[in-house]
Design goal:
Layout: H1 2-9, H2 27-46, H3 52-66, H4 69-77, H5 80-83, H6 86-108, E1 115-124, E2 127-135, E3 142-151, E4 154-162, E5 165-166, H7 167-200
Antiparallel strand pairs: 1-2, 2-3, 3-4, 4-5
Helix pairs in contact: 1-6, 2-3, 3-6, 4-6, 4-7, 6-7
């Protein structure tokens, strides 16, 4: 379903760092940003003349420019982030980026005609929360909230809350479980294996 992808996709995630002083994110600007990304994604998914492999590559491009990978990645790792050395941090962020891009682009390819519309937006601390309604081909519409942050000259998704459940918090819980069982290196190896399987299944 599209909502999973959008969640997981834009499954996303989080609250995090940047400079000590940052301007408040414009609710109107955040809403317009999300509207544009959503429209671009759905137009691509509806393009029946485009090969799935090409669609998936383009979805990864859209995701990569729309999600704050470092902020999400650091949040998802929780306190373990502070325990890593610089080499491990760089390795993790590279793995996390590939993990998100491949997993969410593949989930988006399950699109089945869902639509989404922006309902309203409001400021939340230095971020903006954009409220949307995702209408499925069957079942009840889903209330989905997107936490968006303005950084530099653009906007980025930093969390998605679907029916009250934060995708960022969910991701963090999943990672914590793997790290507890396998340790940091085991966790990295698990991510590498998952990414490898997804790459091999592309196209």
């Amino acid at each position: 379903m599209l909502y999973r992808s959008i969640c997981t996709l834009f499954a996303l995630v989080i609250m995090g760092t940047a400079s000590l002083v940052q301007a408040q994110t414009s609710p109107e600007g955040a809403a317009n940003f999300l509207r544009k990304v959503g429209d671009e994604t759905i137009i691509l998914l509806k393009d029946s003349g485009r090969a799935q492999k090409d669609k998936e590559a383009e979805l990864r491009r859209i995701l990569d420019k729309s999600i704050d990978m470092e902020t999400i990645g650091r949040f998802a790792l929780g306190k373990t982030w502070r325990e890593l050395n610089e080499t491990q941090k760089n390795r993790y962020l590279a793995l996390f980026r590939d993990y998100l891009l491949y997993s969410y682009s593949k989930r988006l390819l399950t699109y089945a005609g869902e639509t989404f519309s922006v309902v309203r937006s409001k400021p939340v601390r230095r971020d903006a929360l954009v409220y949307t309604l995702i209408k499925q081909s069957s079942g009840q519409p889903l209330n989905t909230h997107w936490r968006i942050r303005h950084k530099g000259d653009t906007y980025f998704v930093i969390d998605v809350i679907v029916e009250g459940i934060s995708m960022a918090v969910t991701q963090r819980s999943e990672f914590r479980t793997v790290i507890r069982k396998r340790g940091v290196e085991g966790f990295f190896n698990s991510l590498e294996s998952i990414i490898g399987r997804m790459r091999n299944s592309t196209g």
